[in-house]
Amino acid sequence: MSDQSHADGKTLLKKKAVQRMVSSTNAELVSRRRYRPPKCRVFHNAFTALEEDGRYRFHIHEEAKKKLSRIIDNRVERVIGVEEADAAFREKYQRRRNIGIVFSGGPAPGGHNVIAGIFDAAKAANAENRIFGFLLGPDGVIENEAMELTQEVVDAHRNLGGFTMIKTGRTKIDTQEKVTLSRKTCRDLGLDALVIVGGDDSNTNAAFLAQEMMDDGVQVIGVPKTIDGDIQVRDADGNVLCAMSFGFHTAARAFAWEVGNLCTDSSSDVKYWHVCKVMGRVASHLALEVALQTHANMTLIGEDLADYIDYERLERSDSADYNAYGMTLRHLSRVICDGIVRRAAVGKNYGVLVIPEGILEFINEIQVFIIKLNTIIADYNRTHDTDFHAAFPALEDKLEYLRALARRSREEGTFSVWNSRDDDLFAEIPAFFQEGLLMERDSHGNFQFSQVETDKIVIGLVKDYLDILKEKGEYKVGIERRYFQKTLEAAGLDPDRFGPVLFRNYDASNFLLMRKEIFSQKTLRQVLEKEGMLSERQEIPKAVKKIFDKSVPKFKTQLHFYGYDGRGADPTRFDCIYTYNLGLTVFSLIANGATGQMAAIRNLEQAFSKWEPIGIPIAPLMHMEERGGKLSLVLEKSLVDLHSPAFSVVKALREAWLGADEAPDAYRRPGPIRFSGKTEEDRPITLVLNALGG
Ligand code: FBP
To answer: pTM for the whole thing?
Structure first.
């Protein structure tokens, strides 16, 4: 670029109009920051108190009783409004407090409003209350890296996405040393309360810290965050206490907008299958919501696949082991191919397929590998000085270690987690997937699904199988009868003479399918010659060739991953209001002395006037789960319930959305997240459906 253009740019930047155009502060930002979410009715009172709600019961795990004895008797608490309070209550409520807040795990839209809610409520109770934000997640707590949050900082982040204000991290406070350091941090900052905004693992952590920090007088409160939507709490009788973690709605809407656009693209250019992997480490809630928002042609739901049993194979075997006949990758690819082939038959050799990121977890054969490898890696780390991944950096080293395990089990005839059969099956998997299965687990011992190219694995198998179907003549693009007739007539040929020879359904359908035996120019010629429509020396008529070419499917895909973009989106109005009120609830729990509770809002699916802020006891929700190769007490993740109204509706509409018929595709246009305006939907579709059905 010349000096001249450089100088011009500088001059231009002096103009107000240019400055306005390139400013980082645009109208959307200003209106977001200015917006003040409405408060639940109870928060319009001068004070709030807690009232035990005895209606809820939990099945309490023995291990939770032992390990979380000091908070296991916590009950569900309802936040109630108090207008007139006596002096003792006022003093307790309004006493000066220091509150620390930390984000833990992946970002989720709305986190800043949790902080804003806590900040506003704390300052309203006592202007001298101080709020500290721990930097970079739990590491900030362990290392005492914190910043005091001022009005200015909070105001600059209201209603904005991300966790940019204080950042986040995935460290877990899971060793005695980290707990000791965290306690020291809380002491040094004079904290009265620590608020942990996180997913299932982080809320588990919150419960353990609440137990540990009770003697220090530090209350610990959890907040249900994760775009995955898998923190959904019910009591033992199925009563819903927390219908949805925050961030889910925004992420689902962001993904749905993009997937919806691809539905439009795909049905315009009619040449691609868009394959959209959407986040959700394990549960398929996001994929389910995207299906409802977009009506994409096929949406896989992991939990549904896990439910599958191949009864045909089971009946042929003498085993009663249902697990051995669960969904396999191969079978899954066939299910997908079936949809592709059926759409192609009606001329739609394109479409949109949604694959949940965590789908592999639900494929029986893969799940077995994940569990075995988790155990092997955890065992290695427990018994050696070095970490498994440091000791075996290259894939080949890791494979060699596994081979050695298999050899040892064979030679010594002893039981081993990894035997020759595992090794043989593992060897059949493509190298990039082997690498994925063997990669480092996250700090919670979880398999990192986001790092595996799930879509590539599934589509690879789909392509292979489609090739087979193509060879068998079963995968063909249907030719519209009208088009066939027009093309042949224009060439002076009689369509009714050629039709029955070329097509297997000439008299039966509007979309004509080339006979199976016609799969190449050569076989086309053979059939025409056999039927006496062509002599050896004659060329295949151009019009017939054209029709044949159109009937040969090309399976072209575009792979997309929707995850980090949705996590970083600015929150929907629903998430703004939900999270702000979660923040107000947190302060109410703190001011009323609660600890080991998770802030929540009941009745999210109902009108805002019915929303009910509550505290949910975390300890009674715990159960035992495999983590890092051993059983641990954790908060249970909520998976898609196959009996839920939302799933049942999707299942009932599957065939219609697949669109393997002549009707136009039934796509829905969700549009972008609209912060304001009457047209913005006010809550997730899954949430509403689950509340409507019964
Ligand atoms: P959280 O459960 O911590 O909220 O994170 C959710 C998530 O967005 C998952 O959907 C995804 O698998 C994961 O984070 C990806 O994060 P990372 O890149 O750190 O693995």
So the answer is: 0.91
